[in-house]
Amino acid sequence: MKKNLYLRTAIQALRTVGVTRTLGHVWGTLRDHTFDWKYGTDTAAWVSLADLNIDSQNSPRGVDYHPTRIKPFYKVFQTLNLPSQAGFVDFGCGKGRTLMMAADLGFSRVVGIEFSEALCEIARRNIQIYQERNALTANMSVINADAVDYEIEPTDQIFYFFHPFDESVLRKVMENISHSLDRYPRKIWIIYYEPVHHEVIGSIGNSLRLAKREIASGGCLFYVYEGNETLLLGGGLTP
Fold first, then answer.
1. Tens digit of pLDDT for each residue in 180-236?
2. Run of H or E residues at 49
3. 3-state SS of the chain: helix, strand, coil percent to 5?
4. What is the pLDDT of residues 36-95, one digit of tens each?
5. How far apart are alpha carbons 101 and 167 in whole angstroms?
6. Would you state the pLDDT for residue 232?
7. Residue 149: which residues within 8 A CB-CB, separation 6 or more?
8. Given 46, 136, 153, 193, which residue has the most CB atoms within 10 angstroms?
9. What does the CA dihedral 40, 46, 50, 53 come to, rounded to 10 degrees?
10. Is residue 153 pLDDT above 80, yes or no?
11. In angstroms, rounded to a whole number, what is the distance separating the alpha carbons of residues 169 and 149?
């Protein structure tokens, strides 16, 4: 039964998007499924927040763990060609797959924020395995904290979100980023995968003069917001 379903799906894909794009999608899916097999990590299995013991008043506002797709992630960052010295922060890092890929891309400081202690433990274990197998020298850390409580560092410039929480939490995190820019003006990038609450970033982004662009890959949609350092001087929300 499943074989027939897969065959029908493949035939439909060939008819609608052609051989090249279909093969590209198949290759991307295989990379997702073989990542853990290749590195000995644990990132693929989805996790429901309802199955976790989370000590946070924002736990009802979070979203279940799903790993970032590998090929679309790399395409976005290869398109942007961001500076390696820029600090990378993943809000809602889950099991840490995105952190490992960011380190693989050469970012020297990579931070994951996760309010589930259980997921933090898995992410730290994954990172240790991945770093040892790939001889990566990036400064990588996973912080067990609510996203709204994370104090933005002056070196944090790349902020990654894979639809990790609802609009109220996202708004508070964006306000924290804005206040950090008031104190330490710098160029930033906000990368929002599956941008369910993009209007939140859009409204605050207007104050920060962030330019938006869309990047689609493998059926995944990313909104990328870029702020120019010269435009951010003196900008931001009123504290």
1. 999 999 999 999 999 999 999 988 877 788 999 999 988 899 999 998 764 443 333
2. none
3. 50, 20, 30
4. 999 999 999 999 999 999 989 999 999 999 999 999 999 999 999 999 999 999 999 999
5. 26
6. 42
7. none
8. 193
9. 20
10. yes
11. 10
Residue type, 67: P
Upper half-sphere CA count for residue 196 (Cβ side, 13 Å): 12
Contact 209, 227 (CB under 8 A): yes
Share of the chain above pLDDT 70, in %: 82
Nearest to 200 by CA among 229, 164, 156, 155: 164
| Separation of alpha carbons 144 and 123, rounded Å | 11
pLDDT exceeds 50 at position 17: no
Find how far residue 179's CA is from the centre of its chain.
Answer: 21
Give residues with Cβ within 8 angstroms of 154, minimum separation 6. 180, 183, 184, 186
**CA distance linking residue 234 with residue 214, whole number of Å:** 27
Phi, then psi, of 105 in degrees rounded to 5:
-80, -10
For 203, other C-beta atoms within 10 Å of its C-beta total 11
DSSP category for residue 60: G
Can you say whether the dihedral through the CA atoms of 191, 197, 199, 204 is positive or negative? negative
- What is the amino acid identity at position 42? D
147 phi, psi to nearest 5 deg: -55, -35
